Amino acid sequence: MLRKLMKYDLWAMGRVLLPVWAGAVLLTLVMLGLQFLPTWFPALLTGSYRMTLSLLYSLTILAVVLAVTIVCVVVNLLRTYGMLGQSAYLMFSLPATTGQLMLSRFLCAVGSTAVSMGLTVGLLAALTATAPAVQLHANGSDILILPVGETAPAFWGLFVLLCAGLCFAYTVVLACVAIGGQWPQQRLGATVVCYLGLSYGQGILSFALIFGLFLAAEVGGRDLVTQFSAWMSRHLYTGIGLFACGLALLFALLGGILWVVAHRLLSRRLNLA
After folding, report:
1. Which of 76, 98, 162, 206 has its CB 3.0 to 4.6 Å from that of 267, i.e. a possible disulfide?
2. DSSP at 157
3. Among the residues of the chain, which ranges form H helices?
4. What is the distance between the alpha carbons of residues 236 and 151, in angstroms, rounded to a whole number?
C-alpha cells in the first residue's frame, strides 16, 4: 500500500514541480546560449551587452533559486498541511495505516526537496562556471573543492548533517500538523503557534547545549580546553565532521520523538470535526 500512496503523492507533486524544474533548466540553457553568442557574433562584444548579460545572470540565479527550491518547499508544506484538509476523510479511510500515510508524505517531501536542491546546485554551478568576469582564486591558485584527502570527514559530516536537518524539518512540520489538528476549527492558527513554539524550544535547547559546553570547559579546567584546541588545530576537518555527525544524531533523536508524537495523535486522537 505504501507504494500506491507514494505513486499518488509523486504524481500530485510532479504535476506542479516537473514544469517548474523544466522551466528552470530551459532558462539556464538560454542564459548559457547568450553567454556564447559573442563567439558566433563578434559585433556583440560591447560593454553594454556584457553589462546586460551580467544583470540577466543575476536575475536568472534568483529565479532558479526561487522557482526550484522555494516552490518545492511551499508545495510540500501545503500538501503536508492538507493531510487533515478536505481529503482527510478519504485518506484515513484507505486500507493503509497511519504510519504509511505519514511515511508516504514524508518520503515524497524529502525526496523532492533533495532533488530540487541538487538541481539548484547543478544549475547554479553551470551558470557561475560560465558567468562573465567571474573567477575564484585563493592564494594565487584556482579554488578546487573536492571531498578527498583531509577535507573528506568535514564534507561527509556536513552532508550527513544536511540530510538529517532536512528530515528533521519535515518531521517538525508533520508534528505541527498533527498537533494543530486537535483543534479543527482553528487548525491553521494552532499549527502556526505549534511551529513557533517548537522553533522557540529548539532555540532554547541549542542555547542550553552551548552553555553546557562552556560550563563543562570551565569545570574541566584550562588544561582540557588547551588539549582540545591543540587537537582541533591538528585535526580540524575531522573535528568538524564529528561535530556535524553529533548534531545529526541529535536531529535524529528529536525527529524520532516528534514522529512518535505525530503518529500517536493522528492514529488515536484524530479529530476531523
Report:
1. 98
2. H
3. 2-35, 37-40, 47-64, 71-81, 88-91, 98-129, 152-180, 187-220, 222-234, 236-268
4. 9
